[in-house]
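Possible regression after last week's pipeline update?

I re-ran a chain I had predicted before the update to compare outputs. Posting the input and the new output here so someone can diff against the archived version. Not blocking, just want to make sure nothing changed silently.
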Amino acid sequence: MERFPAPVLDVSAIRLRASMVTAGVWLTFVICVGGLGYVGLTWGEPDRGLLATLFACGVAGGVAVWRLPTERIIRSRWREPFFTAWSVLDLGLVAALVVTDGSVKSPLALIFFVPVVFAAMSYPLPSVVALGALTVAGYLGIAAAEGEVGSSYVFFFTVSLSCTAVMSAWQARNQDRQRCELTHVSRADPLTGCLNRRGLAERADAELAHALREGVPFSLIVLDLDEFKRVNDTHGHGRGDELLCWVVEQMREATRPTDAIGRLGGDEFAVLLPATSVGETATVAARVCDGLVRRVSASVGTACFPFDGDDLDALLRQADARLYSSRNGRLQRATPRAERLSWATALAHAVDVRMAGQHEHSRTVAMYAEAIARELQWDDEQLGLLRLAAMLHDLGKVGVPDRILRKAGPLTEEEFEEIKRHPVIGADLVARVDGLSTIVPWIRHSHEHYDGSGYPDGLEGEAIPLAARILLVADALDAMTSDRPYRPALSREHAMRELREHAGTQFDPLCVELLAGHVKRHAAAERATI
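New output (post-update):
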């Protein structure tokens, strides 16, 4: 089975908004240059110098927008606030120009039409409506301040501006509808009406992000109809198309409204199951197969986050493997060891994302810990368990609020007490998984100090499991050499000096020296390759 494509942003929309920024900047320059010409032609009238300064400010604002990382802003959640704020600032500048020119009947008031029309070309409907109302209100506010609200000129200008605002909103509404229709067409399978590959991949990406953020499971079912080609060959493609539509209808009846059904291609389908555990997924898969058995048999494979992987490709690979191993809906499971490793990797990634964005703290700690243990001549089985413990040593932080994990300043006493609970929480979570009892005390005591000043139990010296002492040193080195909310990263040399300074008090001296030797050899190897 082919892999999902990487989730794709709406490139055409991004290009449109980026081109609108360019157009808006050039429009600002043209209007400001024209305004400076107006200032020159009316130089004998009052406040011409201030008008020229305001137009110069408009040029400076255009340059500032030009220099912004436009595409990054457009791809971010701050896209609409950025465009709205830009337009509001433009309206403020126009109002200042009209007031400075001395009359609501100034020809500069015509510039009020420009932001409204500009917004209609790419802004969503709510932004256009708000901007149109603000523009009319701004003009009437200036007229009221001058006592001109009742004049025939102001009346007709307001009507014209209001009509422009209404037409702009109507155009934005039409664009929103067309965009929604195009989005649906580009993400829906034209035959069955379910999601196509692109739509399914984007939905899966969103659900995985939610699962990582909230710590809830997420499952995937892949389904392949058996001997579908024979249906086409025997009864024709029309009958085959009808069967595919029937299959989707049966899958909808067997799943929940919150689940998403997609066609991967040909006779291959997938179902996305938000907040669904391994056992529940097997139940849904069996229900889907039971619904199809009246007309067609199917091979089915399942995968569940976080047990089978932490991204869509990993989940799909696992589901594919089980699909190809299945016959008529009988599901095969991966080995317990593989599931434990996959589970550890997924949960560690989820914790790392909450703590430090894209930095893979748990993987780096596992690498340092393994380097120390190899120097101690641990066997492969012990090394494997140590890597697993390193991946999970911060697992308990899933129960610590983001406001504490990402706090830029020092922690209060209450916040530090909350942090000190995480080794116990992590150990309790790991203790519930069969086959991982060996590493439970390693995780629980991974923050004990060599002199007994650590937590949660205040163990001292050799009473602390050796694996826990290894984890503490490995964790400290990566923590010091990576950016944290409360300080920038230190150099490895500085970090190693800190470790040596606290050897015998916070850290096991032997573990510190073994890690120092590894870091020194690694640095020498890096220099040799340059």
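Follow-up from reviewer: compared with the archived run. The chain has three domains: 11-185, 197-334, 341-529. Marking as no regression found.
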